[in-house]
Design brief:
The complex is a heterodimer of chains A (104) and B (489). The longest helix of chain A is centred in the middle third of the chain and has 15 residues. In chain A, a hairpin with a 2-residue loop joins strand 1 and strand 2. Chain A contains 3 helices and 2 strands, in the order H-H-H-E-E. Chain A has a domain of 54 residues: Orthogonal Bundle (Histone, subunit A), CATH 1.10.20. In chain A, helix 1 crosses helix 2. Chain B is α/β, with parallel strands linked by helices. Chain B has a domain of 331 residues: Alpha-Beta Complex (Amidase signature (AS) enzymes), CATH 3.90.1300.10. Helices cover 36% and strands 13% of the residues of chain B. In chain B, strand 7, helix 8 and strand 8 form a beta-alpha-beta unit. The chains are: A mainly alpha (104), B alpha/beta (489).
Chain lengths: 104, 489
């Protein structure tokens, strides 16, 4: 399957990986940055073959089946499930989620 | 007594109807089989006590004449479907302790049709993988074996292995790029991904929402029809659920395919495909011709671009769907120095490498400056792929292809380039992008005695013809090989 194999290009460098990791809320060790940059470059380089396709005047596909978004009445249809919602909380107190301080 | 795990779902349902055995007896036989097969690692969680309780209730219902489509049948559920009160992990550490307080619509439908659930089946983490090796709960072992252990395919590897090993009569699975059909091909089982929107996505852990679709893995085409019948249906809780009637697919099996036009896409004859698979594909053509179908050469010119388009769209949607795992409301939390550090530590510890890789690709292709170049372009290429199929339907009614470009491969095979693993989905991913139904049926063995599958692709909502064609192919192929039960000591 020769023609599918990725053509390694430096699409992504170490600085890009740091930025993507921050946006993804993932922590990447300094020692892993280069290998991750190589991985992502390989994948993104392979994806670049999409540039060969003529997509002039093509509308982007946003839904697999042609249908209108269904509408519903704007009314309360469910609720009263505080305890169920809190059941899997990593930390809770007195019917509330307990989370790290976000405002100093 | 006869080994009750040897039956197909259809045979078992008939046996219970005749009173040959009860659901409790059938369930106990499968529990025993599961207990003897822990080496396969097919289950993440078992729920045997609950299953026996459900079986008892099913026998009581039967006595009263209340008989659902899958009444009393012991089945497995991929650990991606939320099950009320039974741990649901998605194969990830981040959901290791997650116990839903609600039931997915698909399993709720099955419960109301009489399912007895044996447990939750192993899978690639968040359904991202083609070998079941990315699961946080360890890889699943394919019941089919050479000298070395083989992968069962993925992501629904636990579902496929459990059905192939006779641990359950059938299983639920999901398919985003081939995750039902490729493992079915690797394990000598039948797997169908129906038209996008047939099965509700509500309560199923999301990977890539515009591609994810549930379906069954089963022992036969008829069993797959029975299972899909019990899973499908309109659900107002899923905005992409199709509000259309569910036909009786059980009646589609065995229907004549005389005069049906079957397309053979030349682009699926890829370089480097093993000869065994080429030969099997030719045999499939011959079998369908002998069944009265007309074979038509067709072209799907954008096939080559399906996988790269998928690897933009799927990670993009995954990065957005997986943003919810932040350690605040449910799932793992790893405390850090502040809120952002807690987010990052939680996600870094909770997700495996492949999931992180895809989140990062998705984040990259959606980020400012790259959206048009990657995401928008991929969605346009996707429209081209849909167009390919629409053009093909002028010439044919279904399409016959191989399911996967290889037989099951060795567990732990070193994959240097992630793209190499992605190629597993080369023949299956096109139908996810186009939302079409596709079924894999076991059609033969390769030179090593390992199973190989053929795929039938159909028009949107035309599962009827897909089942009829698959059923004709199944009869002609007469595949009745089973793996030796080496795991029973």
């Amino acid at each position: 399957m020769e023609f599918f194999v990725s053509n390694q290009k430096n699409v992504v460098n170490v600085e890009d990986v740091k930025k993507i990791a921050r946006l993804s809320r993932l922590h990447v060790e300094d020692t892993e940055l280069q290998s991750l940059a190589d991985d992502l470059s390989g994948i993104l380089g392979w994806i670049e073959q999409l540039n060969e396709v003529d997509v002039d005047n093509v509308k982007p596909m946003t839904s697999a089946v042609a249908m209108k978004s269904p509408m519903r009445k704007d009314v309360v249809s469910d609720g009263g499930k505080r305890d169920q919602i809190l059941k899997n909380a990593p930390k809770e107190d007195d019917g509330f989620f307990v989370v790290p301080r976000s405002v100093e | 007594m006869t080994d009750l795990t040897k039956y197909t779902l259809d045979e078992a349902l008939k046996g219970m109807k005749r009173g040959d055995f009860t659901s409790v007896e059938l369930t106990q036989a499968h529990i025993n089989a599961c207990e003897n097969a822990t080496e396969l690692n097919a289950f993440v969680t078992t729920s045997f006590e609950q299953a026996l309780e459900e079986a008892k209730n099913s026998d009581l219902r039967r006595a009263k004449g209340e008989i659902g489509i899958i009444e009393g049948a012991p089945l497995g559920v991929k650990d991606l479907f939320c099950t009320d009160g039974v741990k649901t992990t998605a194969g990830s550490n981040i959901l290791d302790q997650f116990e839903p307080t609600y039931e997915s619509s698909v399993t709720a439908n099955m419960n109301s049709q009489g399912m007895v659930m044996l447990g939750k089946l192993n899978l690639d983490e968040f359904a991202m993988g083609s070998s079941n090796e990315t699961s946080a709960y360890g890889p699943v072992i394919n019941p089919w074996k050479k000298e070395e252990n083989l992968v069962p395919g993925g992501s629904s590897g636990g579902s496929a292995a459990a059905v192939a090993a006779d641990l359950c009569l059938g299983a639920t699975a999901t398919d985003t790029g081939g995750s039902i059909r490729q493992p079915a091909s690797f394990t000598g089982t039948v797997g169908i991904k129906p038209t996008y929107g047939r099965c509700s996505r509500w309560g199923t852990v999301a990977f890539a929402s515009s591609l994810d679709q549930a379906g069954p893995i089963a022992k036969t085409v008829k069993d797959a029809a029975i299972l899909l019948q019990s899973m499908a249906g309109y659900d107002e809780k899923d905005s992409t659920s199709l509000n259309v009637a569910v036909p009786d697919w059980r009646a589609s099996c065995g229907k004549s395919i005389k005069g049906q036009r079957i397309g053979i896409p030349k682009e699926y004859m890829i370089e480097g495909m093993p000869d065994d698979i080429k030969i099997l594909w030719d045999k499939g053509i011959e079998w369908l011709e002998d069944s009265g179908a007309e074979i038509v050469p067709i072209s799907l010119p954008h096939t080559k671009y399906a996988l790269p388009a998928y690897y933009v769209v799927a990670p993009a949607e995954a990065s957005s769907n997986l943003a919810r795992y932040d350690g605040m409301r449910y799932g793992l939390r790893t405390n850090g120095s502040d809120l952002n550090d807690t987010y990052a530590r939680t996600r870094t510890e909770g997700f495996g490498d492949e999931v992180k890789r895809r989140i990062m690709i998705g984040t990259y292709v959606l980020s400012a400056g790259y959206y048009d170049a990657y995401y928008l372009r991929a969605q346009k290429v996707r429209a081209r792929i849909v167009e390919d199929f629409e053009n093909a339907w002028h010439k044919c009614d279904t399409i016959l292809t191989p399911t996967a470009p290889s037989a099951p491969f060795a567990l732990g095979r070193k994959v240097v380039d992630p793209v190499e693993m992605y190629l597993n989905d080369i023949f299956t991913v096109t139908t996810n992008l186009a939302g079409l139904p596709g079924i894999s049926i076991p059609a033969g063995l390769n030179a090593d005695g390992l199973p190989l599958g053929l795929q039938i692709i159909g028009k949107a909502l035309d599962e009827d013809t897909v089942f009829a064609t698959a059923s004709a192919l199944e009869s002609a192929a007469a595949f009745n090989s089973k793996p030796a039960k080496w795991w029973i000591k």
